Amino acid sequence: MFWNTGITRSNTNKLLLICAIMLSTMLLPSFEIKSSIPRIRLDDVLIFGAFGINLIAGLFSGFRSSSDAELGLSYQEDQNRALKAVNKVFLLFLGSMVISNLYAVIFLKMPFGLRDLMEGVTLAKYYLAVTLAVSLDLQDTEFNTLRNVFLVGLAICMVLSWSQFLNIFKVNAWLTPFFARSHLDNLVHANPPRVLGTFDNPNVMGIFSVFAMTLLAAWYYFRKGNRRYTLLMLVVTGLTIKLTFLTISRTALLATALTLTVLSLWSLFRFHWRKDILLKVAALFVVTIFIFVTSPRGFTMRLNDATDLQTSTSAQGHFLRAGNAFQLIKQSPILGWGTAKTTMTTLVDDEYALITRRYGIVGLAAYLWFFIRPVKGVLSKIKLFDFEASEARIRKRKILLGIAFTAATLAAFVYNITAGIFYNLQLMTFFALFMGLIYRTEGELD
Fold first, then answer.
1. Taking the C-alpha atoms of 116, 48, 126 and 109 in order, what is their torsion angle to the nearest 10 degrees?
2. List of residues 6+ apart from 114 with CB closer than 8 A
3. How many domains would you assign to the chain?
4. Which of these ranges, 61-65, 214-218, 402-406, has the smallest mean pLDDT?
5. Strand partners, 31
6. Which domain holds residue 278?
7. CA angle, corner 360, sides to 357 and 366, nearest 5?
8. Dihedral Cα 207, 213, 215, 216, nearest 10 deg
């Protein structure tokens, strides 16, 4: 495998690269090198740069990767099983893109240019991110490092978000513009203000906080701990939910309600309605209700605005940005119209509609399978796992990651109705690393 050679030959270097990419997706915006070329992200440079160096190193070494003796035969087998599953999913998605574009060019006379080709580059980035995580031998030491880096990144997001909300040290005048290129005046300075955190859009910040909440809530519900640990996890989970509320993203709030309901019911049924689990569910419910009722009046007004689709300016805006996507889907439902970035708008808020317009029902099926396949694999692991048995700690941790990923995927599906995760390079790269760890867990034999 190409991640087992060159600068990522050692597990430590893979871990450091993953940590750097994760922090980039959590904390840094894209950068403009030249106005005539698209903005780039540090994680783009890290992923493609490391891959390019590995290719060059492979040319000189004859593409010899780490040996079985170095990595361990079990490691190689686990990795190969996971990589095989990843390859199938990505080839299916890529195949649907290629077939759709060929159909559009040949039969619909649609143009195909460099911007359309960049769709493949986007998919390649996610493939490299997923396979990098797959190549990591995740043991307790690696897990602790990833956890600590993630918590540091989340803490910075929280501090900056509260600073934006309260405008501490007038942060919205000198630091927030570094992240918010187009949403500063009408969101951060609005009434009520909507925090952006380290992202350029409050809705993106909102769904990222939901992803973080699923990780914390999974540990809160499914990991045994003393009262102090349980209380700590309750407080941190509550703070993350409050972070979602600060964004006033209605899509993220809907995703929060769905994921909390799923995780609560999952834990109740899995542990047979045990008293301690009932208390945990009740405690988190009370915390969530308290956060809701203590929110500013402007928060409630924005929520109420969404109840009437005819008068909601936000809902009408989403419908307008959908443009004629649905009419175009009716005209070419099976294979779509190809990427067609030069002739059709890319601003379609509903990612399901955008994918279907571009690649048809075939492409939509591949797109959905892209997210569902890792969930399907890890659910089989979770189903067989005995939470009451004395298991190795790292195995329990991987199962909890699987539970959190399942809930996070549900949140992503909700988010894709009014926005989209796949075409957000910052958010999807973070999710791709998460996805790769799940594929690797599935590939390991019990």
1. 10
2. none
3. 1
4. 61-65
5. 40
6. 2-443
7. 120
8. 170
